[in-house]
Amino acid sequence: MAWTREQMAARAAKELRDGYYVNLGIGIPTLVSNFIPKGMRVQLQSENGMLGMGPFPFEGEEDADLINAGKQTITELPTTSYFSSADSFGMIRGGHIDLSILGAMQVAKNGDLANWMIPGKMVKGMGGAMDLVAGVKRVVVVMEHVAKGKDGSEEPKLLHACTLPLTGTGVVDMVITDLGVFTIDKKGGAGMTLIELAESITLEEIKARTQADFKVALDGKQSDVA
Fold first, then answer.
1. pLDDT per residue as tens digits for the range 24-62
2. Residue 34: inside a domain, yes or no?
3. CB–CB of 164/188 below 8 Å?
4. Residue 52 is part of which domain span?
5. What is the model's pTM?
6. Terminus of the chain with fewer CB atoms < 10 Å: N or C?
7. Is residue 187 situated within a structural domain?
């Protein structure tokens, strides 16, 4: 069975480390705030000028003035601080964010990322993703494994090379999909490696729905490129 959005977010939360400063992208990544391990100190940073976000509020407890960069209502913590968007991007561009967890439309086997526009469709703006992938120490992508058309067709999102406009080249370190987890050796040239499968998902299912070549390293055993 493929992972749900919540299970994908919970898996992404395992990449957090105590003391990290973390930026969460729009979509599934925002759910990661609900799965921070108890006792772990993580500061969530938002491009609109907030450091120290708590989990999403319960229904009826929302504050319309307290939002993240994706305009979702959030909660604050005793350690929360507020500042201008310019200061927020100064933190990002200055390399002060340890980890960014982003959504994506496409990821290539060398770590290229496309997540900001589809040609011909209305674009609200590129947001902060280009700054994040350039200035953050580590990038984790969380996304559905394939794009599904209205007619039920499926298009792979893990590709030999991205076909959509790029957000960044060679920037992705890990991809978490509803089917499994891949690491990307973006500097060493080893490419993409499957390290974990979602429960009940087989390697054959992954291969059938992935365009990119990848190695397999499950249960400590590594095999050739799939």
1. 988 899 899 999 999 999 999 998 899 998 888 999 989
2. yes
3. no
4. 5-145+163-179
5. 0.91
6. N
7. no
